[in-house]
Design goal:
77 residues, 0% helix, 4 strands, mainly beta, elongated, single chain
Length: 77
């Protein structure tokens, strides 16, 4: 588990962001593993709406929070 905090300031905007991530793995065998990850982002001030600007030409969101999840299986050969 880890936590990051960002703070941004320009003459037009002042804001902050906090992100929390939790990652877990479970070995099924010597070469196969299940994994899961969940993250939560909280935006304040001028960073609201800046989350996706410039990324794959997506328009900005007006959400204060975002949640993402990932699950999968990893096998090494």
């Amino acid at each position: 588990m880890w936590f990051t905090r960002q703070r941004g300031y320009t003459t037009d905007y002042d804001g902050s962001a906090s992100q929390y991530q939790l990652v877990a793995g479970y070995a099924l065998s010597k070469r196969t593993m299940l994994y899961a990850e969940i993250d939560r982002s909280i935006y304040r001030g001028g960073l609201i709406g800046a989350q996706l600007v410039g990324l794959n030409a997506q328009s900005p969101t007006v959400a204060r929070t975002q949640t993402g999840t990932t699950i999968g299986i990893r096998h090494t050969f």
